Amino acid sequence: MRTPAPDSRPVGLTIAGSDSGGGAGIQADLATMTAHGVFGTSAITAVTAQHTRGVESSFVLPLEEIRAQLEAVTSDFDVGAAKTGMLATTEIVQFVADRAGTFDFPLVVDPVMVATSGDRLLEPEAERAYEDLLGEATLATPNADEAEVLTDIAVVDEESAREAGAAILETGVDAVLVKGGHIPGDHVRDVLVTEDGVRTFEHPRIDTEATHGSGCTLAAAITARLATGDSLETAVEGATNFLARAVRYHYDVGRGHGAVNHAVDLRNEAGRNLAAEDVQAIVDRFVERDVSALVPEVGMNVVGATPYAESVAETAAVEGRITRTLSGVQPNRGVRFGASSHMARFLLSAREFHPDLRFAVNCRFGPDVEDALESLEWSLAEYDRAEEPAAVKETEGSTMGWGARQAFGDREEPPEAVIDRGDVGKEAMTKLVASDPETLADRALVLEDALGTDAALEDEGRP
Predict the structure, then answer these.
(1) CB 139 within 8 A of CB 101
(2) Pairing between strand 175-178 and 107-109?
(3) How large is the average pLDDT for residues 11-20?
(4) Among the CATH numbers 3.30.10.20, 3.40.1190.20, 3.40.50.150, 3.30.110.170, which is that of 11-269?
(5) Do the strands 107-109 and 79-84 form a parallel or antiparallel pair, or are they unpaired?
(6) Of 21, 74, 94, 227, which sees the most CB atoms within 10 A?
(7) What's the Rg (C-alpha) of the chain?
(8) Whether residue 105 has pLDDT greater than 70
(9) For the residues 305-332, what does the mean pLDDT come to?
(10) Which fold has domain 271-460?
């Protein structure tokens, strides 16, 4: 018999409806809590026949069943934070408001009134019953439409979002996050209003309609972070960042627009070790083959991104780069995350246009390399730093973004190689990109074969 090794976790609670499609409601809440390291419990208020295209039907559970669920959870679990979602009727809203007065943990109220698809999820007469519930809450998370229902203020921009948030504060809720997803614009601005002031969380808008479950997921992420001990502002900041990634890398499921990726951070974190191992495997192939003919004067680096990488810290690379020695190429040090700046920024910029790209390497460029590339008949792109706008040059770290736009911006498929013709004090480069490590390494070795290693080394006077 083996000794048990229990895993102690914070506990979250969701009081909401069920989504048979799995993208929203308690399914989204529990998945999101799990992804945040929180054990999720639930009190189901209603069952919906729902999918990525809309709500087919809805059945509200008897109040006594909801009461029994809530009693079962709160009497047994040490709940760290709770959220509400679809409450469906005036009776349920009032019941939850009464019970919320006894909670000794934070409560996030997502005033679910209308589904993302536009279907109404709440009885009209129940909308004003939310005032009592909000008075017992730590945070309210209305979208623009819900904020207007609660305040009669049309939320059309950041200023009106602040105004609506301030009006909702009068119900007694500690804070209000007026979500900006329904407000047109190139950026989504979520406005947090408290008695102490206003803070806006801004993210570039993702060009997708796959936002099913986004409101539930955001509120659940905030709840989970509160359960783990985050402050309110820290929880909101982390949750809005999480949702931006979950929308970009959404699940392509159903015949509608898909659903947000509740496990995006969990899967991204799980991919870290594999990404580092993949980079190391590429480096090992380069060392074994001795790719000296491809190594630039400034050194070579191989960079690999986690599946949903959004920052340099989520890319693995060789610390100190790969350099030529008398005995062949060698990495200066090992592989670690955040080790590359130049190539990591280039790869991340390329992923803005082709998110499946995960690996890149910088190689030497010269007339012989250009001839070799032409002989391979690869798909090529290039950019010339001499054409780089002055404003871009003056902004630290922006060249790679500009270069990636020139190379990838107007292409349906990514090129196999990108030529950077350099500039004064900037060595010209050949940059190879790929979606998997094997393809990247294979391309580099094919390019080296096309070069003719001995001739290339002799022409450059290298060891």
Answers:
(1) no
(2) unpaired
(3) 97
(4) 3.40.1190.20
(5) parallel
(6) 227
(7) 27
(8) yes
(9) 94
(10) L-fuculose-1-phosphate Aldolase (3.40.225)
